[in-house]
Amino acid sequence: MGKSKKRIFNKNTDLKGSTFKRDDIISQILYDIRSNNLNDKTRNFISLFGITIEELSEAGAAYEELSVIKHLIY
């Protein structure tokens, strides 16, 4: 393998991507709902992880908070 390819491969192994845990995402979604900050990032997290109403209610969301985002989930 040439020096250039080796440098490119080594450069890519040094870059670390973001890691998200499902619990962290659920708490972030609840924080966004409570702070009235529903944006595209929140919508993307809901669709990416397939968050359901049951998961949010188990995490402590009230009925009023769930009714705000039910159009995003269904």
Radius of gyration, whole Å: 18 Å
For the record, give the distance between the C-alpha atoms at the N and C termini, rounded to a whole number: 51 Å
What is the helical fraction, as a range of percent? over 70%
* Poorly predicted residue ranges: none
Sequence of secondary-structure elements: HHHHH
- What share of the residues does DSSP label as strand, in percent? under 5%
Q: Mean of the pLDDT scores? A: 84
Total strand segments: 0
Given helix and strand content, the structural type is mainly alpha
Q: What is the 3D shape?
A: elongated
Tally of alpha and pi helices: 5
Largest sheet: none
Q: Overview of this structure, please?
A:
The protein is an all-alpha fold. 70% of the residues lie in helices and 0% in strands. The longest helix has 13 residues. The termini are far apart.
